């Protein structure tokens, strides 16, 4: 595998755009969701179940019904392990099944420097941490002014599908509405799977016309929107996170939006909005770690049990490592039905970003 060269110019080329389109599929997942688990008796994500005549029965012999059923009805999540929570195979073999992991939020920079001036944001360190935490896939998310989108795309292409490229976009830099539309169209054409909007970092109104226009344009191009929901800004007062998300959900109805950091302390209120809008997803990155030991631990357990099909986990690497983030999530998920944990740890993101 050829690793991306940080010294490479950030100028996009037609060849790079063509290669990225071939490498990163832009499509919705077809067919019913499959268990995000690893076991000889269960198909892997993206595969199809074997025909009924060849499907093992609970006794281990061929001739079963061919229906996998809901994994969550079989067992419960066990104690935290080194590479993930496990449960007993619901089909036949009784072996421990380890749930795959999909990290919703990781970052890199060309020079490895990060905004806090302490963390290592290099590509090499990212891949090392993903391996250490047994992360099967991750969303590599760009940030305007921190890392250029071309480098994000180069890293994703070099990963052979392990990293899903999400382009950073600052709509406030676009001089008019048409410029926003053109920028989003270019991002889609380059092969990105989504856009990242960070109103706090880039200092714009999350419910202003440019931001809403960007979300609508992304939806038109079937891009997933990653919206940072820690909206507070030092220069001026901002609205409450739940009110902002509620307005975005109505102004941009039908847009698929991952609500990064789950609104922080407003997590439960955002969860109620997510419950009402089927295209919204609640991301637990940062909040999961930053508020450890607070009442939010109880809130996170609550949403894991009731909104398991709408929750994802991210490390916000290099702010936190994937190993630490997933260990923390697994601690809060103890006792959770295995099928629910499989959704949260892998399945929900795998349905948003199906692999080849």
Q: Could you explain how this protein is built, in words?
A:
The protein has 356 residues and is α/β, with parallel strands linked by helices. The protein has one domain (100-352): TIM Barrel (Alpha-Beta Barrel), CATH 3.20.20.140. 34% of the residues lie in helices and 12% in strands. The protein has helices at 14-23, 123-132, 149-158, 177-190, 199-202, 209-220, 241-251, 267-276, 287-290, 296-306, 322-332, 338-352, and strands spanning 37-38, 86-88, 96-99, 102-106, 137-141, 163-168, 194-197, 224-228, 257-260, 280-283, 311-312. Helix 1 packs across helix 3, helix 4 runs parallel beside helix 6 (209-220) and helix 7 runs parallel beside helix 8 (267-276). It is globular, with a radius of gyration of 20 Å.
Strand order of the largest sheet: 4-5-6-7-8-9-10-11
Q: Uncertain segments of ≥5 residues (pLDDT<50)?
A: 9-35, 39-83, 87-92
CATH-defined superfamily: Metal-dependent hydrolases
CATH topology: TIM Barrel
Helicity, as a percent range? 25-40%
Major sheet details:
8 strands, parallel
Count of the domains:
1
Q: Hey, roughly how much beta strand do the residues contain? A: 5-15%
Q: Which word captures the global form?
A: globular
Task: Please tell me the CATH architecture by its name.
Answer: Alpha-Beta Barrel
- SSE class: alpha/beta
Gyration radius over CA:
20 Å
* Continuous helix count: 12
The string of secondary-structure elements, in order, is HEEEEHEHEHEHHEHEHEHHEHH
Please report the total strand number as a whole number: 11
Mean pLDDT over the residues: 80
State the name of the first-level CATH class.
Alpha Beta
Distance between the termini: 18 Å
